[in-house]
Amino acid sequence: MKNSIKYILIMLVFTGMIACDPIDENRLDFDYVGSDPGAAEGLLLQGYSGIIDQFVFSEGATDDAVNNQLTNGYKRMALGELSAQYNPASRWNTFERVFYVNQFLEIINLGEIQWSRDEEINEMFKMRMKGEAVALRALHHFYALQAHAGEDASGNLLGIPYFTEFIKSDGDFNTPRLSFEASVQEILKDFDEALTLLPTDYSLSEGDVDPWYASYDYGKYQVVNGNAYELRITGRIVRALKARLALFAASPSFLNDQFYYNMAAENASDILNTIGGISGLAPDGVEFYTSDDAINSSEMLWRGSIGGNSSGYEERMFPPSVNGKGEINPTHNLVMAFPMKNGYPATATNGFDNQNPYANRDPRLEKYIVLNGASYGGGTINTGFGGGIDRLDSIPQFSTTTGYYLKKLLRPDVRINNDGTTSGQRHFDVYFRYTELFLILAEATNEIGGPDHQVNGMSARNVIGAIRQRAGITQPDTYLASITSAEEMRDLIRNERRLELSFEGHRFWDLRRWGLSLNETAEGYFYDGDNYVELPSVETRNYQSFATYMPIPNSETLKFTELTQNKGW
């Protein structure tokens, strides 16, 4: 990956496109780029830039968190500023990466680049890199579809333009949006082509060689597809991305379609059965981010390279008393979504005590959220009476607004010292966790046939059961056993997804694809010295009724007459 990173840095010098206008690669002599393996691969590696990781913190625009920075884009969206002119969640610029990989494909299809003097090695390099490029093209189109699909003024469900060729900067970009389903099918077409070209895994084992590479010399195969490339996209990852796409397409706000639920379930279950099915659920998946050992967890389906010691996220998120800025404040709404330790919802009937609110709760609660009285970051964090600078609203834009601070994704062993020095730890980007794939399977199988419908030996009930058991829910899980209908299981799956994937950038999109309210008021909880007091309106959300579908950037619809805007924008 050192060479990969080198080429990424080289090519970043040449970035400069606005919206979907590509850089004019004629600045680099085409004959040179089209003949030099390193320069050409730099184009491909641009497709790896912009892959979305877990550190987006879009939860500040949902019912899960409030961002205490007044200028934060997600906060401004949640307060009513989302428009076709202002959309911090826009992904229209992802087309920039599409044009990079399209130019790479144009070059590689000419067949003039020699990756090696050996004919077999050269052929395999071309095959594998073409697979990477096609898969990355599909992925970046998916990002755009997720952010910009929607209904037009007539109620037609539209997708995005789909670009399969390189267009020069002075070319014609005035391309209409496909229908939503046609967009999905184009992405699937690219994913399926990639599956015929990519190895399932980059591996040192000859037994892992896929049939489409079986005729090649194994020693030469290792040069091209050995584990030195293991952070690049693979067939396994593409299957997981297909499952994610299919679940998105099948969702109520889009196609609400059994065909795509089946596709999601089949792809997810096929991959999960290669790791042992339910028994393959990583035992350390709840806290996949907390230590150097966790970096190599079997929870990782696709991750980025491991960075050096750093403390940037902790400086943003730690409470003020341990020298952080307390930026993301989880809501009491989210806190109450964590069940009791016995798995039942946190209600008075089930033993919840609003004056001892964190007792006998799901163990994930204290792992993900800094609660009043918790030890964290080298100090004791009191957010209520007597809490000093950690107390709710004691320091505008630094202290909590809800009574909670964020713990998930942060390294608890980072220290931010009073003199400004830090003791950092290693972090890494996560692109896809196996837990997400299990949750995709659970949601899809339940929508197909209810709690006990099985696909390749797994059902929603036993998947959710395994996830809750790993979380520390008391066994036997009598609440799960009491669920009999698809509707009840749907609610539980959505709640488990909310908890397990919290603060990883999913909630913002899940609410939209499920068609749920975006305007749940953010609530807080405060200890006044004698009692805990609910704060029913920390931040009022103000989304338009049509904000389930986000806008195409106004600048694009003005430039390109073929682009149809989503309804209301």
Automatic annotation (TrEMBL):
CC annotations in GO: cell outer membrane
Signal recorded as keyword: yes
Cellular compartments annotated: Cell outer membrane
Keyword Membrane: yes
Pfam families in the record: SusD-like_3, SusD_RagB
SUPFAM superfamilies per UniProt: TPR-like
Keyword line: Cell outer membrane, Membrane, Signal
Domain RagB/SusD: start-end pairs: 311-569
Every SusD-like N-terminal domain range: 72-202
InterPro entries for this protein: SusD-like_N, SusD_RagB_dom, TPR-like_helical_dom_sf
Family as reported in the entry's similarity comment: Belongs to the SusD family.
Name of the molecule in the record: Starch-binding associating with outer membrane
